[in-house]
Design a protein that fits this description.
Keywords: Membrane, Transmembrane, Transmembrane helix. The radius of gyration is 26 Å and the shape is rod-shaped. The protein has 2 domains: about 100 residues; about 70 residues, no CATH class. It is about 80% helix and about 0% strand. It starts with a helix and ends with a helix. The longest helix is centred in the middle third of the chain and has 27 residues. Helix 1 packs antiparallel against helix 2 and helix 3 runs antiparallel to helix 4. The chain is mostly helical and about 180 residues long.
Length: about 180
Amino acid sequence: MMKSDIPQLRELVRKTRSLLDAPDLCQLEAVVTASEELDRIAQKLRWRLRPTPGKVSAIGLILWRARLQEVDRQGRTSAAVATLGDAADLLKKVYSILNKGWVYRSWVSSNYSFVFCVIFTGVIYGLFSLALWAGAPLIVCSVVLAGVIALMTAVAIRDKDGVATFWSLYGLVPLYVLWHV
């Protein structure tokens, strides 16, 4: 999330919150819950902290559920239904802005991190074994191997990739076992 997005996010959250202050909506429990959550998000934005897209999405789902309940109660043409729809649409905009800059990776992409690290670590240990077989000293091979794995870990930490960090650090375990056997 860019710092320039914060004023836009504040404005969208303020507009959404003002839509929920309508007198016919204040009596709905779901709207009260969503309003409280929006107040928390507005407070975070005042402190220049980034709320999670998942939190905004959850508030949007609360509003859509309230909208569907109002459709059952009052029909599609009521003002409350239109207001709840508008508020949910504003939250979709907030979600899309937050989601552009969010660094969270879903579980599916973490599988790719796992596969990449395991394959990369396997290749490194293959080269390590080849160098030992060719007669290179154990200390030199171990230091180079530890350096490459440390570099791989640093890149994973820089990318905020927890799965890759774990598996690249786990790649040091066989090296530790080799030295202490």
